[in-house]
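Cross-posted from the bioinformatics board.
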Amino acid sequence: MRLPASQVAVIEAASAEEAQTIDQLASATGEKPETVTGAAFDLEADGLVSIEEAAEESVELTDEGQEYLDDGLPEVRLYESALELGADDEPVSMGQVIGASGLDGAAVDIALSNYARKGYGVIESGEITADPDADPAADAEAAALAAVEAGDAASVDDDTLDQLDHRGLVDRSERTVRSVQLTDDGVTALMEGVEAAETVDRLTPELLTSGEWESVEFTEYNVEADAPEYGGGKEHILRQTANRVKDVLVGMGFQEMEGPHVDADFWINDCLFMPQDHPARTHWDRFAMDEPREIDELPPDLVERVERAHREGVGEHGDGYHSPWDEDFARALALRGHTTSLSTRYLSGEQVGELEPPQRYFSVEKVYRNDTLDPTHLLEFFQIEGWVMAEDLSVRDLMGTFEEFYAQFGITDIEFKPHYNPYTEPSFELFGTHPETGELIEIGNSGIFREEMLEPLGVECDVMAWGLALERLLMLIYGFEDIRDVHGTLCDLELLRETEVMY
Ligand code: PHE
């Protein structure tokens, strides 16, 4: 049997009695591990060897871990100096012990915080005592550092290893270890004799000019072989998902809205029939602008109609809020707390002129809320805003639209809960099931715009609308639990690097 040279080397080095790892085969054959892996996969495809995979944890010292292995753990150095200064007899001032230990910078804090934890003594009121019975030679963490250095991390108990990991003294990573063993067919092939066929793994100018390329045998591509990882830049999964949402909505016939992040309260609230004394408007959850404080101009006719709706209501039986309505109040600028401000701008004709039904519009844009930070709330997030303007819309249209939208992301178990918004009737909150925790999480808010909102804007047919949280959609797709994993300084780089695009 003729095989490429690397496969011949591997099959000859492999044994039928015991499995050998890729590393063992690499040193036996003198080939690179990547080459051995590739050859082994090819041999496996031909049924000549079998490959087993196992996950193996590898543990290595970090630079800091290496330093402590060489110079001693900071807490041990502190203890030794404390002993020298007689702190086993009576307390010695902290400054003196630290000075004698030669520790400085961050190592001082590290020494102090581990000293008591590990029973080397007590630190109190600026003084250190040393426990005469403590034994640095028996320090489990120091011994573990040495074991890791010697490649014997397996002998270290889990708690100690966790502790070293927690202190940043070791790096742990998982890798796949493959072991190769000859199959019966492999043994037969070997007995019948294998010889190396010349194969070429890349096309060179020489092969081309000499014409040799026509007769050589090319190595096959193996897309499963281990390859070095490159941590290059890539698009953030939030941006990827935002773009996907845009594609999906455009595919559903929607056009994109745009508009200011800082806007007049008029567009953010008044046009939505939100009374000016509504708690959300005077309260903490709004980011007001200092400079400029107010918008220059509002469309006077619209202002008049909106004011009338607020004061008197709309229609024959309209009642209105009877609460004060002040144009100056409506002019105040704030960071938008929802992108429904874009919807009011578009629906009123302010942004792109009068719109004739049917119309569908959306935006995927940032909104700002002065919330308390927690795993599901940030001061800013992305809202997927949208609305459909048409004759005779019903709740079924609204639900059907969401089902169609979320199904594009593989989410088919959306639940609806009746809700209240000053500007929609009926209103619904949307919930989805978190794939990891199984909990229902709120993913959006929606409804059919009220007459009191639409009439002043000059809209005569039905409009159904929503604001969905992009980050919550991301949680349902990717299963992370804390919004801070994808936003801000605490974000989980590993998650961002390794999350695969899902389509
Ligand atoms: N503005 C609402 C929010 O931010 C979302 C919404 C938009 C609800 C349109 C109904 C209609 O929660």
